[in-house]
Design brief:
424 residues; alpha/beta; Aspartate Aminotransferase, domain 1; Aspartate Aminotransferase, domain 2; 2 domains; 8-stranded mixed sheet; 14 helices; 38% helix; binds pyridoxal-5'-phosphate
Amino acid sequence: MENRKLFERARSLMPGGVSSPVRAFKAVGGDPIIVSRAKGSRLWDVDGKEYIDYLMSWGPLILGHSNPKVVQAIKEQTEKGLSYGLTNVHEIELAQRVVSAMPSVEMVRFVSSGTEATMSAIRLARGYTGRKYVVKFEGCYHGHGDSLLVSAGSGVATLGIPGTPGVPEEIAKLTLVIPYNSVEALEEVFKRYGEDIACVIVEPVAGNMGVVLPKPGFLKSIREITRHYGALVICDEVITNFRLSKGGAQEYFGQDPDITCMGKIIGGGMPLGAYGGKREVMQKVAPEGPIYQAGTLSGNPLSMVAGIATLRELFELNPYKTLEELTKRLTSGISQILKEKGIPHRINQIASMFTVFFTEEEVYDYQSAKRSDTVLFGRFFRALLKEGVLIPPSQFEAWFLSTAHTQEDIDLTLERIQKALQSL
Ligand SMILES: *Cc1c(COP(=O)(O)O)cnc(C)c1O
């Protein structure tokens, strides 16, 4: 077994054998796979086993693995330079595309990851307002910046506590953590700290506690209350940009944030993030304004051409309706199979992303998501993997479809899930 041998070597060289924790499969048990290659909707491990892929690199690959147009764009650019450290024409083109697509974004700054985008957006909000507190929602993930790796204290509207060793209490205290979808908690926290709150950061659809949809009126309340207190709204669209619609969640829900964070699909599989927003706010970013943020590889032409090719193809295909139909074919099939087996579950789905929660009750925030049977999920994951279906190795993540997935893929997936469940 090459997988096992290579993973042991990986573990002696890299913490946990991985470059990002969840890849170690700790939440589901069993040996992680080592990937040798991928194409379209398929991925192969080093033992040559083929999987239908619904992990899709955690979201960026809405056109599937190695889309020919994206690959061609990257190939052509490699001959013309990998990085210049100066503004290039592709940056201007991608900026133009982003600004035209995202309703609230008038100016944009490119960075190299979603984490960098959210960290920079927080600094901008603090610098712009001259205030210190950040409000975030429990269960939302905004990358691994210190201010954002913070857990909820006990009770509503309390100061955050460090979510990991290495984040000083003094920093964690500046983040206020409240339950997702709770307008009441939002009002409470603003009543207590309103004059000192710089921003509210939110995933317009949560994807990192599993898919959790905003209740009607939730996003609107965030906008209204922040406006009242003079705080900014940071919409973290790292998953939802170009996933829910051409204009992301803000177009889908008619949201009007001050700053938007982007990532994943925007780079089409290359390292790329961005933050953007109202001109008045973005003009405070250096060198136009005083708030510092920089990056050696920011705006590098390889990520730019990959992003441009991805958005061009995506906007030409306009696959959102087809993708959603395909996704519903899969989720209703899964639901049917689980029902026949008498397994309690809830599926939260929007556009081409969803999560199968193993719980009977509605999932609308982190606490309700946590009621899921994670042991059962682990068994489900391993049984699917064995049958050649790769899904995210955690109950609290999203499955993604791409334009490379066909109806035949979906039907084959359902057959395999049916088979997998026989041995569960
Ligand atoms: C993935 C993700 C991030 C972090 O992006 P990285 O590129 O992994 O640093 C931030 N916010 C959300 C909503 C994400 O899903």
